Fold this sequence. Notes:
The complex is a heterodimer of chains A (238) and B (759). By secondary structure, chain A is of the alpha/beta class.
Amino acid sequence: MTTPSADLTATTRPLDRLLIIEDQPDGQVFLRAAARRAFRHAQIDIVDSLAEANTKLAQRYDLAIVDLRLGDGLGIDWVKRYRVLHPDGWVVIATLFDDDDLVFGALRAGVDGYVLKEQSEESIAEALLGLVRGESAISPRIARKMLHHFRAESPPQAFGAGAGANADASGATPSEALTERELEVLSCIGQGLSIKQTASELGIKYFTVNHHIKSVYRKLSIRTRAQAATEAARRGLL
Amino acid sequence: MNPSTPSTATASVEPTQTGLAAAHASNASSSEAQRRATRADAWLWYGALLTGGLLCALLLAAVATQQRPYPAVTLAADGWRLEGQNDRIFDRLKIDEVVHPIDPAWLLESPGHARDVTQLIRMYVGETILQGAPEAAEVSAVATDGTRVKLTFAKRGIADVGPRFWIPFLSGLTVYGFALLAIRTGGARWEAFFLWLAATGYFVAIGLHGWHSDRPWAGDESVWGIARWGIVVGSSLSTWCIVALLWVAPTKIGNPVYAAVVCVLIALGDKLAVELHGTAAPHRWVLGMSLVALIALFVVQWQRSRRTDAIVARVALRWSVFALVPGIVVAITIWTGFVSETTLPRWNNLALTAYGVLMIGMSALVVRHRLYVIEDWYRPALAALLSVMVAFLVMGLGFAGWRTVSIPLVLGAVLAAVLTLWAILRGFRSLGRGHPPIDTHALLPDLLRVAQANADARGELWLALLRRTFVCDGLAPNGIAAPQTPPDAAEIATVRNSGASLRVAGAADALPSLELSGARNGVDLFTPNDAATVTLLHTLLQQAIAANDAFRSGAHTERKRIAADLHDDIGGRLLSLSQRLSAPKEARYVRDALADLRTMTHALGGENFTWGERLADLRWDLTERARSGGATLNWQVQVERTVLDSKARTEASVSLGAIGSELLRNAIEHSVPREIGFSITLKDNHWQLVFQHPSTGSTRPWSAGFGMNSIRRRVSELGGSCEWRSYDGDEEGALSTGAFGETSTVFTAKLPNENMIEN
């Protein structure tokens, strides 16, 4: 699978097609304005329900901005299906609060990041552009949840043993184990450091920290995506 | 306010009338108690002085006015010697033409020491002769060679009193003097009172013996009878007071040195009087009792010693005294002739009966001692054995005579020996002494603290509470699983290993099982009473935990509901508003409100978050908000790891987030800073917050409106204090002025750590 973050040259690539899934009219206007500010020439489709969004599953979008709580369901469900069909498209969720367990669930479902809807239009536009450039949004609470998740998933000997570690009894594949550096990055962010402060603390570059975060996101969603793909195949979607 | 220290009240807290009244009442009560104590001291001291003076005067008067023969008589092996008659031995006394053989024992021993009835009669006869001699028309001493010397009688006066009076008298006076010293230094306490009585009894007895030993040659028979009774009463008084001292010795003798000196002098004085000067001293048995007391009092010196051998010796001695004193008293009194099967007047039978009663009393005390109460079955069995022992001993001693080996006596002695050995062994095992009862009411506050603590800290606090209560060791053994169902009351606390340990059952996930050992610093045993106390505490604790958990659960549910409402309802509306507003300033206000709402719902919705996690979230939040305001947040935290790992109190967490948000928003609003400093330092058990930003150019950092009032209220609710001021260059935790230009505004707050951490 090729993830967008794996190709840093894509940061300069213009996005042509955007999808916004938002049930609130004000939110639709706001998100469209922010997206327009970030990607001036892109075609922006807007849907206001999960049912309508499902009709767009077959279409590939360069970026999908998905509201977590929709009137007829959760945006995560749409993300899971969409990810199976289009693993290389950007998916971002828009949420009011970043401490919601749904955010973590969305990350596990394979979203590339999240934006806070409370932010200004400029900030959201900047966040979207940053995402495309390879930057990642992550709060200390999300980082700690990730740490807890990987610690619960991996036995001590596999945990932190690097990508080359052997598969463990719980079924975690080597690629799901976090490297020492990824653990350090998550630990720093979990203690409240920003990405820039984390880079300074660990003596690495800003983009390298972002790369590690992206890697963690990817590892977080591997099993979910695999399960989703199996389910999609069973239903004949693939 | 502490009523005993009214002067420490601050101006803001005026003492109430009730408080002052209580203070006066307390002082008055204290003064009254002090006056009473002083009065008792004075009564005892002056009473003892007066008694001593009277005793001296009476004894000196008695001895100075008694008549004696001239020439002076001294003792020889087989008769008398008279002054000025060379080495002649006088073996007869002629009174009004009647000749009596002279027995030297007349002047040596008292009738109480008679070895047999013949000697006793001869001594009584001799006394009668001596009493009647001065009244006769003519009295002569007849020597073995037939020489006759006429004896005349006159009052001797003080100058002619011999050593057989002076030595006992001075012995008694010295003992009395040390008793006075003990009273003077120890005050009116029971041990001082007993010591004074012992010294008085000894002084009376030894003084009368001195008078008696000089054999007054005249006087009514009633005077001699009174003297003999005085000796008996005085000796008994001193003996039983020493026994009483033994009784209180292990715990109450403040200065055992004086008591030991008194006992030593009693013993030595009596010994000297008897052995060196031939003083008739039938109360020689005081010597034995004094020696026992002496040993006891030396052991008392170890009372505060924590050495194992001292503890062992103390316990062994106590048990020995408990079990052996009655027997020793009886044996010594018979051995010394105080009680004799050959010469038993009526009062001797009474004395023997009194000793039997005493033995029964001692046995009852032994049975009631806590060391025997450990297991209930010991009590009836032991009581029966002791009763049989007492019965046998009384029968054997009272009817068969102590020199005759009788079956009851042997059985009683064997039982006494077995029980004594068992008691001593038991004492060695327990090394214990009594302790005050446990006041469970006083433990309730501690119990509530245990109940209110976090689940993972409860076990440790519960163990600490029990260890404090019983002054013991204890642990939560891994091998003992806590029962998943509530245990029966009888199974909550069980005495094990004959009281060496106490097993306390756990309670499902709430409390671990515990094993306590070494009660009262390892010198005592756990008893069923201790188990009952622990059962009561355990039951109360479980109830308190259940109530506390229900309260917490309710509070958490309510917090989550409020957070959900804020999140879904207010948050949604504010978001919609912020997205609709076109004016940037208004939109920013709304977004700030949303950010505050997020901080609040973070704290409200969470449970069991540590301060490390809370501070990380706060740092991230403030950093992001400072960045969006064009500033950099300089964040510093100097707090111990243990505090960072402790659970954050929800109210404190919400307040700290709100305070940080408000300060940051106002700083960005009013001073447009490039850099903002925020430090948290734990010092002197207080959280010291310092928030610093460039000066607003006003003496007031910003409008003293809702924001400042809200911050003050939150700080006050956490039991702290806060202030704003211009940076004066030495503010602890503040950043250098370089980051803020010439001047900066510093907000400082001090919050007690105990209000920040969830107990």
